[in-house]
Amino acid sequence: MTPTGTERTTVEADVLRADDQRFDAMRRGDWTALDAALADDLTYVHSTARLESKAEHIANLRAGKPHYRGIAPRERSARVHGGIGIVNGVSEMHVDNAGKEQRFTVRYLAVYAKIAERWRMIAWQSTRQPDA
Asked: Which fold does the domain 5-128 belong to in CATH?
């Protein structure tokens, strides 16, 4: 069954809220919330092309590789197809990585699946935008 316009808007807002909650958990270092926000079979591709599983991603974040100081998503849109939510967006990133502070912008694609009544991210792919 295809959702109506109002239902689609509400579900899309739920997916964007899940995206916000995941970003917030990363920034705050809330590993319990991050674990709940990510699917067990997550595929995470950084803007550097480094590929991580869920376990690798959380372990690296816990070790501060990198440490996210700020994440500011913008220009986002969400689409929902059945139990899959797709977010396209742009985000300003502020990280400490290997002792260096970095600020950059990424264009990203985040894919969420409705698992046990919760939107959990199953895939992430980002590309660093060139400096202006």
From this structure: Nuclear Transport Factor 2; Chain: A, (3.10.450)
CB pairs under 8 A, 24+ apart, for 75-81? Answer: 76/16, 76/19, 78/12, 78/13, 78/15, 78/16, 78/19, 79/12, 80/3, 80/8, 80/11, 80/12, 80/15
**Position 58: which residue type?**
I
pLDDT in tens, 71-84: 999 999 999 999 99
What is the per-residue pLDDT across 76-112, written as a single tens digit (0 to 9) for each?
Answer: 999 999 999 999 999 999 999 888 999 999 999 999 9
Rg, C-alpha atoms of the chain: 15
What 8-state DSSP symbol labels residue 64? T
